[in-house]
Specification:
The complex is a heterodimer. Chain A is an all-alpha fold. Chain A contains 12 helices and 2 strands, in the order βααβαααααααααα. Chain A is about 50% helix and about 0% strand. Chain B has 2 domains: about 140 residues, Immunoglobulin-like (Sandwich), CATH 2.60.40; about 140 residues, no CATH class. In chain B, the strands form 3 sheets. In chain B, strands 1, 2, 3, 5 and 8 form a 5-stranded antiparallel sheet that branches. Chain B has a 5-stranded mixed sheet with strand order 4-10-9-6-7, with no helix packed on it. Chain B has a 3-stranded mixed sheet with strand order 11-13-12. The longest helix of chain B is centred in the C-terminal third of the chain and has 24 residues. The N terminus of chain B is likely disordered. Classes of the chains: A mainly alpha, B alpha+beta. Chains A and B meet through helix 1, helix 5, helix 10 and helix 12 of A and strand 6, strand 7, strand 9 and strand 11 of B.
């Protein structure tokens, strides 16, 4: 049984955004809530979240933030570490199913009603798309839940989130931006994360990822990249990475070290 | 049902006759066993999607027809794709044998990963890479044959989610009866981009929506007004947005494609000039446009 979260209509979300966007995290600590008058729930599909559960979720997230200086100190260089921990917490503790996690108004509720203080702290000068959920792949919380959903590995019960920190945010954005195509396949994204080289000889990692995604999308038109078992998929992904890497090396960047193995995880 | 040749393939594929596949059967082996329908109105996240079909494939003939070498490994692959989650996944991978022609393919997907429209694609693919030769598939996973089944879960309901809320607690006009929220992005999934908010403090509209399945005359009139106003609002949105075009491909089940469907249904006589004339009417003569949408939606018409 999944948990249903309150949904905040866009009109109410816009109004709330105007109220909070120029306030500080410390001011907003006293202006959080577990309900909103305009909220509504999906009619079926699970049980409605309780006030206690929302309070617990808030407590967990505020705890993570406080360890990084919330509400008075800026997040600074700990962004990646905080986001990774937050992704894990959201995915583990929300009991949310993918279909429900695709509903943008639930993310607007979380960012603007339950956790406006953390939202403003994570994204100072709060851009609208980070909280209004006009695009889940940009949302302060929604994008992290989806990162965890796409990268978590149930077959690794000891550490199902071990792939979460492979890609820095700007690179995972490249994948999330392609959710309608290859970015919607957890199997393909996990294969990419497992085969992605740990050390890049130059600063071209983001551009290389863009090229790899472009080649995979082209191949996906006639090659079954979403249905193949891992034992076939990972060599295909690895080969694509190597081709892109060699292509970029030929373009004049630093050559790939001799004998370097591509990929960071042993193939089973 | 059979795979449609909508793209130019860079290699030979298996022609009709080499692969045959039955229709998918829903809930095989249960009291509810039946041919998979186009929609499942009673589905929810707790319902697993269970399907089975029988396929007949002659692997030897398939290799010969597609130019593959004798013994090249082939497999049946079944994968799915759902909106609005946009998730994709694999559900079956069945290696083919030369001495077996009949295969029963079945799978079971947890409902929590689905929702909206589920596309189930069956493929015959290369189960290993081969040598590169002209006009012959060589990459592992290359598709030699495919077909697709679409099932709409929860019927058409999720395309038009309705929520009852008190408008007094919102920024909406407190005495309004309803408000239609439409997302800004025409390529966004329609399931998340359209939301009808009904004012639960407005007794007449709240009653009419609650009794939509068995309305009295007053409810029927109210629901007719609601329907007509929603259609007009959505058509206004389509026509008012310069970027909206009937020729554009917004993708399946997106807000843009839903708006295109509405234009085709309610303004079928205005498609030839890519909406130029109807856009002119809307801006130059709004009362005429309002009357046109009333007529198209049969506003307050006698029930036939």
């Amino acid at each position: 049984m999944s948990t249903l979260y309150p949904r905040l209509p866009a009109s109410a979300a816009n109004e709330r955004y105007a109220e909070i966007k120029d306030r500080s995290p410390a001011e907003l600590v006293k202006d959080t809530d577990s309900t909103h008058l305009a909220q509504y729930f999906a009619p079926t599909g699970g049980t409605r979240v309780t006030a206690e559960r929302l309070a617990r979720l808030r407590e967990l997230i505020v705890d993570l933030a406080e360890k990084k200086g919330f509400p008075h100190e800026p997040l600074g260089r700990s962004v990646h570490e905080f986001d990774t921990a937050l992704a894990r917490t959201l995915h583990t503790d929300m009991d949310l199913v993918p279909a429900e996690a695709s509903v943008r108004p639930i993310w607007a509720f979380l960012a603007l009603v339950l956790l406006p203080d953390v939202s403003v702290w994570r994204f100072p000068r709060l851009p609208g798309d980070r909280v209004l959920a006009t695009d889940i792949t940009r949302h302060v919380f929604g994008r992290l839940w989806w990162r965890a959903e796409l990268l978590h590995e149930e077959t690794r019960p000891d550490d199902p989130y071990h792939l979460l920190d492979v890609f820095p945010e700007r690179n995972f954005d490249q994948i999330l931006a392609r959710r309608r195509s290859i970015g919607g396949s957890p199997e393909l994204i996990r294969a990419l994360a497992k085969e992605w080289p740990k050390n890049w000889p130059d600063t071209g990692e983001t551009e290389a990822l863009q090229d790899v995604l472009k080649y995979l999308m082209r191949r996906g038109a006639f090659q079954d990249l979403f249905g193949m078992p891992e034992s076939l998929l990972r060599p295909e992904v690895s080969r694509t990475i190597l081709e892109v890497r060699h292509g970029r090396t030929r373009d004049g960047s630093t050559p790939m070290p001799e004998g370097e193995r591509v990929g960071r995880h042993a193939r089973l | 049902m059979a795979g449609k040749a909508v793209r130019a393939w860079p290699y030979r594929r298996a022609a009709g006759g080499i692969v045959t596949a039955s229709n998918w059967i829903l809930n095989p082996g249960s009291d509810d066993e039946r041919e998979a329908p186009a929609s499942l109105p009673d589905w929810d996240y707790q319902t697993r999607l269970r399907l089975r079909r029988r396929m007949t494939i002659d692997a030897v003939a398939c290799r010969a027809a597609t130019g593959l070498v004798v013994g090249h490994p082939l497999a049946i692959s079944v994968r799915w794709h759902a909106t609005p989650s946009l998730l994709r996944g694999a559900v079956a991978w069945v290696p083919l044998r030369d001495d077996v022609h009949e295969y029963d393919v079945d799978f079971d997907i947890a409902g929590e990963r689905l929702g909206g429209v589920v596309h189930v694609e069956t493929m015959i693919v290369l189960a290993a890479a081969g040598e590169r030769r002209p006009a012959v598939a060589h990459l592992a996973g290359s598709s030699l044959w495919n077909d697709v089944l679409d099932i709409r879960l929860q019927g058409d309901a999720p395309l038009f989610p309705i929520a009852l809320i008190p408008f007094s607690g919102s920024s909406l006009p407190h005495r309004a009866a309803w408000f239609l929220e439409l997302g800004a992005d025409l390529t966004a999934s329609a399931l998340g981009a359209i939301q009808l908010l009904v004012n639960q403090e407005h007794r007449r509209i709240a009653d009419a929506v609650a009794k939509a399945a068995s309305p009295n005359d007053v409810d029927r009139a109210v629901l007719s007004a609601l329907r007509s106003d929603i259609v007009r609002t959505m058509l206004e949105r389509a026509l008012g947005e310069e970027e909206f075009s009937m020729a554009e491909d917004y993708g399946k089940d997106t807000l843009g494609s839903v708006l295109q469907g509405l234009v085709r249904t309610y303004l079928p006589d205005h498609l030839e000039d890519d909406l130029l004339e109807i856009r002119r009417i809307r801006s130059a003569d709004p009362p005429l446009f309002a009357a046109m949408t009333q007529a198209a939606t049969e506003f307050l018409a006698e029930e036939r």
